[in-house]
Amino acid sequence: MGIILDVKDLEVSFQTHAGEVQAVRGVTFRVNKGEAVAIVGESGSGKSVTAQTIMRLVPTPPAVIKGGSIVFDQNVDIVSLSDKQMEHIRGFEIGMIFQDPMTSLNPTMTVGRQIAEGLIKHHGLSKQKAKDRALELLNLIGIPNAAERVKQYPHQFSGGMRQRVMIAISLACSPKLLIADEPTTALDVTIQAQILDLMKELQVKLGASIIIITHDLGVVADIAQKVIVMYAGKVFERGTIREVFYNPQHPYTWGLLRSMPRLDADEDTDLIPIEGTPPNMLYPPSGCAFADRCPNAMEICVKAQPEETTLSDTHGASCWLLHPKAPQVDRGLILGGVPR
Amino acid sequence: MIEPILQVKNLKRHFNVGRNEVLRAVDGVTFDVQKGETLGLVGESGCGKSTTGRTIIRLYNATEGKVLFKGQDVHALNKKATKAFTRQMQMIFQDPYASLDPRMLVEDIIGEGIDIHDLYSGKQRRERIVSLLETVGLNADHANRYPHEFSGGQRQRVGIARALAIEPEFIIADEPISSLDVSIRAQVVNLLKQLQKERRLTYLFIAHDLAMVKHISDYIGVMYLGVLVEKASSNRLYERPLHPYTEALLSAIPTPDPEIERTRERIILKGEIPSPIHPPSGCRFRTRCPKAMPECAVKEPEWKEKEPDHFVACHLY
């Protein structure tokens, strides 16, 4: 299996009046061909900035890519591309789906034209051919009455249907990689189920790789094969979903799993919240960013950043508890499912 | 049986939306809540769950039907009785940014109800506010700050302190955790649970997150397009859902467990929620229901107690 995306030591900061906000602080991960990778984290964890940097959609300034590389398809370093070259990548190679389909669609253009736009611009299709392809795509993503709907405007579509249109636009140029930033957060659960189903189906049908950004661990378990847990601009843990859900190694991952209620849980299982709030990224802590909220924090945690410990080919976590000299701690977690 | 603290009887709330069209946001819901219990109301956007909550607390007038709080019709109170009622029922809102006045100090936000009801003044008022802040996990220093100085989770705590300030018996919490980050949600939910235990509060907990609702509620009511389709104890509803909509809703929620997700069959509902301006005839869910029968288009299903304490409105039963 080849690597479609290789992100190494990525650092992104924003220059603000108050100072430098270090949104992404050395993020490293890989996406293999045909794989769905989820990035989870809270607001401010840097997950969206990471995704937008891959698309080079963060405005510079105020943002600055301070370091690292993003290698796409083994030979293109996205960080060093010119704007013109980047346009080509967006037109042919990587598609993106945003959280809010209402604000990301153009309200003054018919849905059909919005889908066809990229095909005419990047692929040089004739108007008629692009129109035909738009119709084909609407059918593919399951919009009923596609021949009628293609002539309508976004406001005539419901939230779920708009998100389907967004997916059609992102698929129009047959991308090798699809980045979906909270694609179902604004949708109701029954509609979310439809969209996740559609994305899974398309992944198999078209063989595209997917990066999905979400804060919902349920969505991760449903759609992804691998997961990256981010906090305060860093990757805290990464692995296959089985490794991370059944054998999590980072206290923050434990905290996330403990604080979420499960439908299949006994009624009196208490939720154990993660106390405190995430750090202010204007002044990121010098040690582990989670130290002040971590029930297992040790002296070293406040002083120095932990390196990533490799646990398997696919599993890694950055925590001082994984140091050979660290004490054993109870993760206070009942792990569900059938472990391995 | 003791009289329920809240009885909602065939409650309707319609809105005129122009062109002689009527949006039937809430179209006949009936349920009881016993003192000290939590009833969770769930459903997708536009199902009328928030409007139900707002009509109960009289933010909206009822179009039809009754809300009885301790036996008194909430919508037929005179001015004095209304004031007494508002002291007993309070609300926590979804958006902790929009629901706190940005120009008021936290002290005055929490103190507003105390002043209106003339409960405390001077030093006592101050002490009361500090003790409320401590109850919700903030401290005295926070009293002299403005809402913008707080994070979302902290603001929601201020909203909870405000609701508690006049010692109500009944709290309507309308999506109190939806706008909070995952790691903060459990903090707020645990706080609500602890307060309920200490003060024997009764909650109407409105949310779309079924897992969280199941965690906090004794009973759950499921709404669809302005009507209740099912109500049962939360464990029972999860283990033995009767209504096809409840079944689909439960099956749509992804569980944070890869093994379960990989093996389960999901009921994917076709289509979207119809407009509440022109709801389908008969059973409102029939257009998306995998088990719809010809009868469903003709007759609206009755709200009945299929099994003890388990209500459902569906022609299958």
What does this protein look like?
The complex is a heterodimer of chains A (340) and B (317). Chain A has 340 residues and is of the alpha/beta class. Chain A contains twelve helices and twelve strands. In chain A, the strands form two sheets. Chain A has an eight-stranded mixed beta sheet with strand order 6-7-8-3-9-10-12-11, sandwiched between helices. A four-stranded antiparallel beta sheet of chain A has the order 2-1-4-5, covered by helices on one side. In chain A, α4 packs across α5, α4 packs parallel to α7 and α5 crosses α7 (159-171). The longest helix of chain A is centred in the middle third of the chain and has 18 residues, at 189-206. Chain B has a single domain, classed as Rossmann fold. In chain B, α3 (106-116) packs parallel to α5. In chain B, α6 links the parallel β7 (170-174) and β8 (202-206). Chain B is of the alpha/beta class. Chain B is built from eleven helices and twelve strands. In chain B, 34% of the residues lie in helices and 22% in strands. Chain B has an eight-stranded mixed beta sheet, with helices on both faces. The radius of gyration of chain B is 21 Å and the shape is globular. Chain B has helices at residues 49-56, 79-88, 106-116, 122-135, 152-164, 182-199, 210-216, 234-239, 244-252, 258-263, 294-298; strands at residues 6-16, 22-33, 38-42, 64-69, 72-73, 89-92, 170-174, 202-206, 219-224, 227-233, 304-307, 310-312. Chain B starts with 5 loop residues before the first strand and ends in a 5-residue tail after the last strand. The interface between A and B is large, with 49 and 42 residues.
